[in-house]
Write a structure and sequence with these properties.
Number of domains: 3
Bound molecules: adenosine-5'-triphosphate
Number of strands: 14
Largest sheet: 6 strands, mixed
Radius of gyration: 24 Å
Strand order of the largest sheet: 6-7-8-3-9-10
CATH superfamily of the largest domain: P-loop containing nucleotide triphosphate hydrolases
Strand content: 25-35%
Number of helices: 10
CATH class of the largest domain: Alpha Beta
Amino acid sequence: MQPAISVSNLVKTYASGFQALKGIDLHIRRGEIFALLGPNGAGKTTLISIICGLVKPTCGTVLADGHDIVRDYRAARSKIGLVPQELFTDAFESVWDTLKFSRGLFGRRPDPAYLEKILRNLSLWDKRDTRIMALSGGMKRRVMIAKALSHEPLILFLDEPTAGVDVELRRDMWEMVRSLRANGVTIILTTHYIEEAEQIADRIGIIHHGEIILVEDKHILMRKLGKKRLTLHLQSPLQRIPASLADQPLTLSADGNNLIYTFDAHGDTTGIAHLLRQLNDLEIDFKDLHTQESSLEEIFVNLVGRHK
Ligand SMILES: Nc1ncnc2c1ncn2[C@@H]1O[C@H](COP(=O)(O)OP(=O)(O)OP(=O)(O)O)[C@@H](O)[C@H]1O
């Protein structure tokens, strides 16, 4: 099947001479939720802005649902909904008129029932006649989402959708994202809340210094790069890690009460049995122990750190 978005050898050099994207290749599958992660300044917004036709690429091609975003801009753009990072919309218009106008811009026939459904899903129906300027920040953000959906796009971009929004809106948003995906919409989101990507995304892409350094199925990524941690709660605190354990991947908590052992969950051996024997020989007793898997956040920090 043709990908929802195909990006090939995409380069962006800004007028300042700064190269924000250095030859990106990326294929977004139909109907997936793709989380694009990267530190500040990595190039996420630049990439999204090019795909949505807001910024001109220096070279390379982007196809949205098979349409070239430069040569066949209108067709490509009509497939895409964008919820930008910044809030901007016509302050004097009512919510309803804004949506109606936005749908019309894409040449779509009026469909009040569809617009009503979006507004109800976003808890904006009661505000349909309110001018945008009279809405709270969170409601304005909901309007941005409603606007992005007004022309029934196949592909939805959410650029930092939950930055500064309250818990309720965040929950509504993820519920909506899941139901859009169930209806076949492809969703690409950027977020700084990596635990959100961990919860919601099917695949993860990591961009760093204008390059895609990894694209992977979330579960595979976590299995491949995830580490496990064994924490031993000691009977009596240690001052320091004994010299005979120096070659072990151990850390001691600041209060000396916990020894933390990191191991590869998928290696042939974990080394735990050996460690426990060593502790026994050293007469280091523990009251309790527990294991924990590393989060996507830890994997991310580790990967980005390695590509500094
Ligand atoms: N108009 C511009 N002219 C020159 N440089 C720019 C321009 N817009 C962005 N940049 C630079 O390009 C790089 C990528 O910026 P971009 O906004 O795409 O990053 P980002 O990954 O979205 O970051 P953030 O997480 O902070 O939103 C940054 O170094 C930025 O300073």
